[in-house]
Amino acid sequence: MKSASTPAVIELRQCGLTYPGPPPVTGLSPCDLLVRPGEFVTVVGPSGAGKSTFLNVLGLLDSPTTGSFLLDGIDTGTLSDAQRTALRGRRIGFVFQSFHLLPYRTACENVAMALTYGGTARKERAAFARSALEQVGLGHRLDALPTTLSGGERQRVAIARALVGRPSLLLCDEPTGNLDSATAQSVLHLLDDLHEDGMTVIVITHDPTVASRGQRTVSIRDGHLNEQAQP
Ligand code: ADP
Predict the structure, then answer these.
(1) How many DSSP H helices and E strands does the chain contain?
(2) Exposed end of the chain (fewer CB within 10 Å): N or C?
C-alpha cells in the first residue's frame, strides 16, 4: 500500500496544448487531473476529440503550452529535453495499437531491448525480460519470433516490453484496436491483473466497452477533459 504522501503519478494543473498553426488549434483545453498510484483510468472520446494530444502530453512526447504537468511529483516543465527523455524511459511504459515489435528478434530480445539504454547489464536484461514475459503468461514462448505469435500474444510481448523497466505508469493507446473481441478480452484481463498487482494504468480508447473497464473514466470532447460519473 502506498502512503498518503506518495505523489500522484499524474498531476495536471490547468494543463493545455494549443497547436501554433496558423491558425492556432486547441488540442487540449486547460484541464486538471490527478491519477494516484495504482489507479486504472480510461480516457474515451471520438476521433478528433484530443486523445492523441492528451497521450502525447502524458507520454512526454509533446509539451503543454499552458499550465503544468507533474509526473511522480516532478514538474516536467522544468526539465531539459534530455531529462524529459530519460524520465519517459524510466517512468512510462507505452503500449500501442500496432505492437511495434522487431520482426527478426525473439520475444525475449524484443523485451530486453527496452533496457538497452538504462544501464542494465546484458545478462540481467535477458533475465528481466524472461520474468516480464512470464508475468504476461508467455514464459513458454521466449524464443518465438513475432511472426509466429498470434495478435494477442504479440500484444502481450509489447506489454512485457512496457513493463520490463518497472515504470510507474503503463500508458496504453487503443491497446485492443487490432485484436478480435475474444483476444481483446484476454488483453484487458491482463491489464486488470496488472492493476490488481498495483500498476497504474491509463488506457486511451474510442471504444466505450474498453473504457468501461477502468476504475475511473474521463472523457475528452472537443479538447475538453471531463470526469465521468461512476455508474
Ligand atoms: P484524436 O486523437 O482524439 O483523434 P487529436 O489529439 O489527434 O484527436 O486532435 C485534436 C485536435 O487537434 C483536432 O482538431 C486536430 O485536427 C488537431 N491537431 C492534432 N494535431 C495537430 C497538429 N500537429 N497541428 C494542428 N492541429 C492538430
Answers:
(1) 7, 10
(2) C
